[in-house]
Design goal:
Layout lengths: L1 E5 L4 H17 L4 E7 L14 E5 L7 H13 L4 E3 L5 H10 L3 E5 L10 E3 L11 H10 L18 H13 L9 E5 L11 H14 L3 E4 L6 H10 L2 H4 L2 E2 L7 H8 L4 E5 L2 H8 L4 E4 L6 H4 L8 E4 L14 H6 L1 H7 L6 H13 L1
Parallel strand pairs: 1-2, 1-4, 2-3, 4-5, 5-6, 7-8, 7-10, 8-9, 10-11, 11-12
Helix pairs in contact: 1-4, 1-10, 2-3, 6-7
Length: 356
């Protein structure tokens, strides 16, 4: 039996949907389980024993229709028996349809309807602390599990050699990764509309440095150094002494290895938080006001993983508001989302997880 899981686009989504591959491989150990993803996401899939082949979706396929057609024909030649599409967009629907698989699984009322001959409900309210992003994916393949125990947790597979190679790097920056408490701050979102205001982020960082004996790392890319420096320069002098600004990964896999030595993560929702969760690191996530927390917050038990949203504190600001209106007013909504609203919750989270 040959199975293909299709999950394009972002790092967090690819990591979450890798859980589908793991569960199916455990149930069907002799099946070929392939995973179709965008090229830039592959570092989160390295060393994954539950994926037989990575099928890479190239950016050129979006602008070059001939290249995309050739890609579709290559997929068809592989003769998959089952294709599962958690991405549910036009491209993934076409891949699913042209695969020719006898069982093509997708969401009801999502994607290109004719692409799927097995459609499952796409519910809008979470039924467990797994969260919608996990539950919806489970709905796609649960009927294939043959009553075997489901494992809902996405995982990263970091080799022992990868763990040890980071220790000298931490030492170079004056951190003992084996004994010190290290807090990773996700200081920037994937875009401005998903990034907690700079002055508020500075307040949070100063609060952490004032109340806890920790070293602080920033999650940012070299291209975002200007923004990182701006936040660093606004911090109190005693806070700056706790921040190690230049300890960042040169690439995504390097960040994973660095995050593996951190105690926990705090900051904007995004791929970094999903990576931390997959490494079993506690997370405190700040959601953008126009993003639905219930759709993207996973494994929020209020202890190990905690997520906050302006709607938790000022729901009246969201009454009768549609997504486009919230997006248009993201600045004013972020302005209302002051650190004081959730500082006590952040303090409890840190006390609980740093002591643990």
């Amino acid at each position: 039996m040959k199975i293909l899981v299709v999950q394009q686009k972002m790092i967090g989504d690819v990591l979450i949907s890798s859980m589908i591959c793991e569960n199916l491989k455990k149930v069907y150990p002799h099946a070929q389980v392939d995973y179709l993803v965008n090229t830039f996401t592959t570092p989160v899939l390295e060393n994954n024993p539950y994926i037989d082949n990575l099928i890479l979706f190239e950016d050129q396929f979006r602008s070059n229709y001939l290249a995309f057609l050739k890609f579709l024909l290559q997929i068809r030649k592989k003769k998959y028996d089952i294709v599962i599409d958690p991405y549910a967009k036009l491209e993934s629907s076409l891949i699913t349809l042209f695969s020719g698989a006898s069982k093509r699984i997708g969401y009801q009322n999502k994607g290109l309807g004719i692409a799927y001959n097995h459609k499952v409900p796409h519910h809008n309210q979470p039924k467990s602390y797994f969260g919608l992003a996990i539950e919806r994916r489970i709905n796609l393949f649960e009927h294939l599990l043959q009553n075997l125990t489901l494992d809902p947790f996405p995982k990263l597979h970091v080799l022992d050699s990868e763990k040890t190679e980071m220790i000298p790097l931490f030492q170079h920056y004056g951190i003992d990764a084996t004994t010190e408490k290290i807090v990773m701050i996700s200081i920037l979102g994937s875009e401005t509309r998903k990034t907690y205001p700079e002055d508020y982020m500075v307040q949070l960082i100063d609060f952490i440095a004032d109340h806890f004996e920790v070293k602080i790392l920033f999650n940012y890319t070299p291209k975002q150094q200007k923004e990182a420096l701006s936040i660093f320069n606004k911090c109190q002098e005693k806070t700056k002494q706790r921040i190690v600004l230049d300890l960042i990964g040169a690439d995504l896999r390097a960040f994973i290895k660095i995050m593996n030595h951190c105690t926990l993560i705090i900051g904007n929702d995004g791929g970094a938080v999903n990576i931390a969760k997959a490494l079993k690191k506690p997370s405190f996530t700040i959601f953008s006001p126009w993003i639905k927390k219930e759709s993207w917050s996973i494994f929020d038990d209020g202890v190990l993983n905690k997520a906050v949203h302006l709607n938790d504190y000022q729901p009246e600001l969201f009454l009768s508001k549609k997504s486009k209106e919230l997006q248009a007013n993201y600045k004013s909504l972020y302005h209302a989302f002051t650190p004081e609203l959730f500082l006590k919750e952040l303090e409890l989270f840190l006390k609980t997880n740093l002591n643990h």
